[in-house]
Structures are given as C-alpha cells and as structure tokens.
C-alpha cells in the first residue's frame, strides 16, 4: 500500500507498478493488512492495533487442516451427495474443543464435501473421477515449530504428524461413505502452515481473527483504519 507524506493511503504497488487510487480497500483481513501490506515506514500508525491483535481472545488461534481426496469411479456407480456433511463427536462443542487442545489428534469436528458432485460439468470434463474435501479445526501451535521449514521438505516429525491426521480423517470419510473403499487413488493433506504458504494466511487462520464476543466488540476493528483513505 502506498502512503503519502500526510499519512494518507494513495495507492498500491502491484508487480512493481504503482497504481494510484482515491481510497484503498483491503479484503485480506486485519492481520495481513496491518502487518504485511502497510510498509514498515508507516507501521507505527497501526502499532497499537497490531499489539491488540495479540490478545488470545482476538488473535488468530484456530486454523483448519484439509485432506484432499481423488476418487476413481470408472463405472460411474457412485452417487455422491451434493450436500455437505458435518460430523461431531458430541453436541458438547466446548468439551470437544477442550479435548482437542489437550490432544491435537482428537479433532473436534469434520466437514466433508464433494465438489465434483456439485458441478454439473465435472463428469463430462473428468469422466470416472470425483474429488472430496475433509476439513477439520486445528491449533496453529501444534505445527508452528515447522513454519520455517521448506514446503514439501519439512521434517520427518512433521510428516509423521500429517500421516496420523490423514489416517484419522480418512477413517471418518470411509466410515461415513463406505462405498469409497478401494476407490481412493489420490490423497494429500494440508495443515495450518500449509495455509500460510499457499493462502498467505496469518497463523493458518483461513477465517481471520478469533470469532469471539470480545473480538466482535472491538470498535477499532471496523472498516476504517488510522490511515486516512484506507
């Protein structure tokens, strides 16, 4: 973001090109906007906001991890749902989340979706194939130690953790949709640090800051910043 000598936002830099504008709207969330898009020379203007975002009730503490599944169905026999599935261990969500924070392998909830079943053109474009997503909450702290490792070359410890999560996620998928057994021909798994690399998220939080009463009660978290025109 370009900021002039009056501390007003006046444009953006895209691939080295300066694009001027009367006002600037950022849709990437407060953490990325304040800590990545505002140049360091002017970051003092929002330093109080950056500090307040470190509050545990406001910070991006919960992330999502995703299992990507490729399914082989050459006979076209699968009748996968267009609707999504939500799977919980119990209706006591607070307790489910508390258990997860004690043991990262106890994923508190799962979301299952078949994008290929929702797309009426998918079968003609990719005959005999389907794709599935299985998503579950996770805590960034569980993988933070691996954040600086090279993507696709992270440590054996990290790969071992991913394998354990993948096994859990796959069991949930196959328990819910047993007709997929022996039809899975591709699996990949992404964690919170995967989100940071590919989506430029903050602490893997694809939905931004914490969704808590305290976070939504912060008057400084509105659509205007201390930098005018932004």
Helices and strands: which structural class? Answer: alpha+beta
Instruction: Classify the beta-strand content into a percent band.
Output: 15-25%
The gross shape turns out to be globular
**Cα distance spanning the termini:** 9 Å
Reading the helices and strands in chain order gives EEEHHEEHEHHEHEHH
The main pleated sheet reads as: 5 strands, antiparallel
Strands of the widest sheet, in order across it, are 5-6-7-4-8
What is the overall number of helices? 8
Low-confidence stretches: none
- The count of β-strands is 8
How would you describe this structure to a colleague?
The chain is built from 8 helices and 8 strands; from the N terminus they run E-E-E-H-H-E-E-H-E-H-H-E-H-E-H-H. The longest helix has 21 residues. The chain is globular and about 65 Å long. The N and C termini lie close together (9 Å). The mean pLDDT is 93.
Key features of this structure:
3-stranded antiparallel β-sheet, 230 residues, alpha+beta, 28% helix, single chain, 8 helices
Topology:
Elements: E1 2-3, E2 9-14, E3 17-20, H1 30-37, H2 47-52, E4 62-72, E5 85-88, H3 93-102, E6 109-113, H4 115-118, H5 122-125, E7 129-139, H6 156-176, E8 184-190, H7 192-199, H8 213-216
């Amino acid at each position: 973001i370009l900021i002039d000598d009056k501390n007003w936002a006046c444009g953006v830099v895209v691939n080295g090109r300066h694009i001027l504008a009367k006002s600037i709207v950022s849709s990437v969330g407060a953490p990325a906007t304040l800590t990545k898009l505002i140049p360091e020379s002017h970051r003092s203007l929002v330093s109080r906001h950056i500090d307040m975002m470190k509050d545990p009730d406001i910070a991006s503490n919960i992330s999502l991890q995703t299992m990507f599944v490729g399914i082989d169905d050459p006979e076209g026999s699968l009748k996968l749902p267009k609707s999504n599935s939500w799977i919980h261990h119990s209706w006591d969500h607070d307790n489910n989340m508390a258990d997860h924070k004690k043991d990262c392998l106890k994923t508190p909830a799962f979301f299952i979706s078949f994008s290929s079943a929702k797309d009426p053109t998918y079968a003609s474009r990719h005959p005999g194939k389907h794709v599935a997503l299985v998503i579950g909450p996770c805590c960034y702290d569980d993988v933070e130690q691996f954040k600086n490792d090279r993507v696709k070359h992270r440590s054996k410890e990290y790969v071992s953790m991913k394998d354990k999560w993948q096994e859990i996620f796959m069991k949930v998928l196959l328990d819910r949709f047993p007709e997929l057994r022996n039809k899975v021909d591709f699996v990949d798994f992404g964690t919170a640090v995967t989100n940071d690399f590919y989506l430029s998220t903050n602490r893997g939080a694809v939905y931004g800051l914490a969704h808590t009463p305290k976070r939504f009660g912060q008057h400084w978290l509105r659509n205007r910043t201390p930098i005018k025109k932004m």
